[in-house]
Amino acid sequence: QVQLVESGGKLVQAGGSLRLSCAASGLTVSTLVMGWFRQAPGKEREFVAGIRRSDGITSYADSVRGRFTISRDNAKSTVYLQMNSLKPEDTAVYYCAARYFMLTTSPSDYDYWGQGSQVTVSS
């Protein structure tokens, strides 16, 4: 029932900015938390940022805090990831995810996933 579709990934220069979008369908009031994860080749999927749909409370990985901002537009059932000051190590496939009630950082906690959007940061 729940479907998540990411968009916005592309190749950018180091130091540049990019905004990813995740359009969601089938969400209910109980689908409280939306998150962004990323996975680079040969690495495990890791938490990037999360947000509670009800009140906008956020959480960030240390590696992106101060550079990335997660936000949501509940009326449009969309969550965004604004990425600034991008670094080559940010290169990864970025995934949108959703779960119920608690904002956590483990990929295994999340119930629904998008297909991923490739972000490549050059230099």
How far the N terminus sits from the C terminus, by CA atoms, comes to: 40 Å
Radius of gyration: 13 Å
From the spread of the alpha carbons, the general shape counts as globular
Biggest pleated sheet = 7 strands, mixed
Helix/strand/pairing category = mainly beta
Element-level helix/strand string: EEEEEEEEEEE
- Give the helix proportion (percent range): under 10%
Taken as a percent bin, the fraction of beta residues is over 45%
Describe the structure.
The protein is 0% helix and 50% strand. It is built from no helices and eleven strands. Strands 2, 4, 5, 6, 9, 10 and 11 form a seven-stranded mixed β-sheet that branches. It is globular and about 40 Å long. The model has no long low-confidence stretch (mean pLDDT 95).
Quick overview of this protein structure:
The chain contains no helices and eleven strands.
Topology (elements, then pairings):
Elements: E1 3-7, E2 11-13, E3 18-25, E4 33-39, E5 46-52, E6 58-60, E7 68-73, E8 78-83, E9 92-99, E10 112-113, E11 117-122
Parallel strand pairs: 2-11
Antiparallel strand pairs: 1-3, 3-8, 4-5, 4-9, 5-6, 7-8, 9-10, 9-11
What would the keywords be for this entry?
single chain; 123 residues; mainly beta; seven-stranded mixed sheet; globular
